[in-house]
Amino acid sequence: MGMFLLKLLSWTLEALVVILSILLKIFTFFKNVVKEKVSSSKKNVVKKDYDKTLKSQKTVKRNIAPLWKERKWNKAGNTYNGFYRTQYGSYKGKIIERYQGLIQFYIFNPPKCLAQHSHFACFIPKEGKKYEIHFSTMAKTADEGILAIEKILTEAHQLLQKR
Question: Which long-range contacts (CB under 8 A, 24 or more apart) does 65-74 make?
Fold first, then answer.
C-alpha cells in the first residue's frame, strides 16, 4: 500500500509539472499578444501626435548673448554700467571686473524695502547713494551677479507686499 501511494504521488506531481508548463506557455502567448496590440496602438497614437507636432514645429535658436548684453548693460574696458531690472522697478548699477577674477557689484539708490531683506547686510553704503554688494559666494561672472541681485531686489519687494 505504501508503494502504491508513492507511485500515485509521483504521477500526480509529474502531471502538475506538465499542466504548469502548459499554463506558462499559454500565459506567455497571451502576454505577448496583448503587448503587441498595446505597443502598436501606442505607436499609432504617438506617430499621429508627432506628425501633428512636426507640421507646426518651428526651430528656435538658443540665445547665446551674455545676459549683461541682453539686459542692455554697457561695457567699457573692465566696467559695466546698466540697470538691475525687476517687475517692481529698475535700479542703476555698476560692475567692475578687478584682477584675478574679483568682480565688484554696486547699486545706486536701492529701494527702501531692501532694508527688510535678510541680505541687506550685504549692501555696504559707500559715498552718496552708492552701495557695494558683497556675496557669501562670489559671483564668477557679471551675469551671475546681475541675476543674484535682481533676485534679492524682487524678494525684497515681495516681502513688502506680504506685510
Answer: 66/141, 66/142, 66/143, 67/142, 67/143, 67/146, 67/147, 68/95, 68/142, 68/143, 68/146, 71/146, 73/142, 73/146
